[in-house]
Amino acid sequence: YDIGIAEILLMPNSRLINQSVKDAGFRDKYNLNVLGIRRKKEYILHDIKDEKIHSGDVLLVQGTWNDIARLSEDQSEWVVLGQPLTEAAKVTLDYKAPVAAAIMVLMIAAMMFDFIPIAPVTAVMIAGLLMVLTGCFRNVESAYKTINWESIVLIAAMLPMSLALEKTGASKVISHSLVTGLGQYGPVILLAGVYFTTSLMTMFISN
C-alpha cells in the first residue's frame, strides 16, 4: 500500500539527457526504480539500465509515495504526470485497521480509568502520534487532512456554552422544567424532550 508508481516526463534541458538509466542515479538519490521508458509510441521494458535517456522520454518509476513526492521538488529536470499523491490517498490501509482499533481502545481506557495518570488531552495526542508512527497514516500531512474542522469548532463552541449554562443556573432551570413538565408522562416522553432540547441547542451552536 505504501509502494506506488508514477510517470515523469523529462524536460529538454534536463541533465539526464544522454545519460543511461543506471548513471541517472534514481535508485541512489531518490530510492526509486525505473521500470520502463515510453519513447513516442515505443515502450522499452527490458534491459533498460544501459538505455540512454532522450528528451521527451517518459519514465515509469516505482517507490514509496513519499519518495515519489520528492520528485515534484525538482521541476527543472522533469514533470511528474498526473497526481500520484492524490491517487495514493484513495488507497485504504485496510490491513492497519486492527492497529488503529487497538490504539483507539487504549486511548479510551486512558481517558476513562483513573489508574492511568494521563490527562485526556495527552491521551489523544499520544494516540494521534501512534497512528502516524505505526503507519495508520502515511505521514503527518495526511493525518492533518483527515481532521474535521467543523467538529473541532463545534466542540470548542460547546465547552464555553456548557460552562455559561452552569454558571448562570440556566442548566438547572432547563432540567427542572423538563422533569416537571414531562416527567408525569413517563420516561420515554422525558427522554424525548431531553433529546429534542439538546438537538435544538446543538443546532443553535453549530449555526
Plain-language structure description:
The structure is a single chain. The chain is α+β, with helices and mostly antiparallel strands and 207 residues long. The chain has three domains: 3-89, Regulator of K+ conductance, C-terminal domain (Alpha-Beta Plaits, 2-Layer Sandwich), CATH 3.30.70.1450; 92-147, no CATH class; 153-207. It contains ten helices and five strands. A five-stranded antiparallel β-sheet has the order 3-2-4-1-5. β2 and β3 (42-44) form a beta hairpin. The longest helix is centred in the last third of the chain and has 20 residues, at 149-168. The protein is elongated and about 85 Å long.
Topology record:
Layout: E1 3-10, H1 21-24, H2 26-30, E2 33-39, E3 42-44, E4 58-64, H3 65-71, E5 78-80, H4 84-89, H5 97-112, H6 120-133, H7 140-145, H8 149-168, H9 170-182, H10 187-206
Antiparallel strand pairs: 1-4, 1-5, 2-3, 2-4
Helix pairs in contact: 5-6, 9-10
Quick description:
It is built from ten helices and five strands; from the N terminus they run E-H-H-E-E-E-H-E-H-H-H-H-H-H-H.
